[in-house]
Amino acid sequence: MFPQTNLGSQAYLKTKVLTASPAELRLMLFDGAIRFTEQARRGYEARDYEAAYDGTSKTQAILMELINSLRTDQSPELCQRLAALYTYMYTNLMTASSTRELALVDEVIKLLRYERETWSMCIDELARENRDASAMRTLPSAPIAPQTGTAATPRISFRG
To answer: What predicted TM-score, i.e. pTM, was given to this entire model?
Structure first.
């Protein structure tokens, strides 16, 4: 009975991953990292070091995926800061695995939850903006450039 249930949940997860947007995939990575870090914490508490190692190594693999998926061509400064944060979490987990300091694991869990919440808010805001844009009946008119008398090309900047 269990193998079929496991196969069913694997099929569900596979479908979920294959149909998710890149933003949703990133959110799923945070969910997994939180779950595995909590597993590592429980392992340390129970002195089940195999479970702690398993949770730690899975979280570290996710952190490496988060680092490798950063698009430095889009926002180099933000990517550099995020890479430093993910590296900090990775290092904390390495140190915790040798010292068994729960405070280091707790710090990683806290940071992962914060990152997950921030990313979730970004997804919600993007969805709201997409709904608002799709509800528009007409497109806004482009301003006229005074020198040429033609529509000016708007400059879009994500830097503020």
So the answer is: 0.74
> Is 5 a member of any domain?
no
Q: Which residue is it, tokens 């969910």?
A: 31
In angstroms, rounded to a whole number, what is the distance separating the alpha carbons of residues 59 and 51?
Answer: 12
Q: Do the domain assignments include residue 158?
A: no
Q: Where does residue 115 rank: exposed (0-12), middle (13-18), buried (19+ CB within 10 A)?
A: buried
Let me know: does 128 contact 119? Beta carbons within 8 Å. no
In tens, the pLDDT along 61-106 reads 999 999 999 999 999 999 999 999 999 999 999 999 999 999 999 9
Cβ contact 56:92 at 8 Å = no
Instruction: Please identify every stretch of the chain with a pLDDT value under 70, giving residue numbers as ranges.
Output: 1-5, 8-19, 139-140, 142-160
Within a domain: residue 82? Answer: yes
45: CATH: 1.20.120.340
Percentage of the chain surpassing pLDDT 70? 76
Containing structural domain, residue 54: 17-133
- Domain total for the chain? 1
29: nearest Cα among 41, 16, 12, 10: 16
